What we know:
By secondary structure, this protein is α/β, with parallel strands linked by helices. It is 33% helix and 20% strand.
Amino acid sequence: MAQVVIAGCGYVGNALARQLVGQQHEVFGIRRDISGLADGIRGIAGDVAQPGSLGPAPKRVDCAVYAVGAVDGSEQAYRRAYLDGLAGFLQWLADEGQRPRRLVMASSTSVYGQRRGEWIDEDSPTHPTTFRGETLLASERLLATSGLSTVIVRFGGIYGPGRESLIDRARDGKLLLRSSAHFTNRIHRDDAAGVLAHLLFHSSPEPLYLGVDDEAAEEGELHEWLADQLGAPPPLEIDDEESGRGAGDERRTGNAPRRSAGSKRCSNRRLRESGYVFRYPTFREGYGELIRARSRN
């Protein structure tokens, strides 16, 4: 049994914590409001961007995970979560005399700026075109200076229970169909958590992985499939410049989904070769389960 500290027990972090508790590990979760922690997790209240606000660390931190997310889509929120927060978390570990044998961090494929349908892997050049990608890349570089054994996972769009706006839009006949191909990359929340757990205890992981499922799906194919599964109207065909809504991470800014990122195809070959087996290999299994769960309720 390992003692694991998770900084950022939110959408993915809580799912990870539940998996680790189920595997009989002792899990400590850092949140500003620890009432939101899943059952079986020991809470550490505070803000990682202010390490002095955190309580004492466990006596032994075997492994750590940094899965903090920005509270909104602003540049300030991103800097606080991924730069100030990571720096504060590393300081807290050092101040508490803790040196985990591995620290895994959740990053994003937004560090890649390619947008012409190129295939991307861990060796592809990073050319972020937004402050989100730039901030995450700077966070990865900060982690590299920690002196710890670290693994970074660049996740695609994360969906799952509670992030089902794409299903709602499909049901309401509000999905769009671009006039040209647009590739998207995603991963179900439970697989995102599973990947983190897998790499946390892997005997000899690589320092970087792409966290995406098996299929860099074409957006139009996904939209048409969802409409068909729901018996909903087909997507509305529009010119590319009219489209501002993608099918990736379904978090929202205000009342609208985030504008879609550039079209690229991310490969999970390295992750597959590490031995990870996906619960939801493609959007069909993942969204199919979400649709079936709705029909049961």
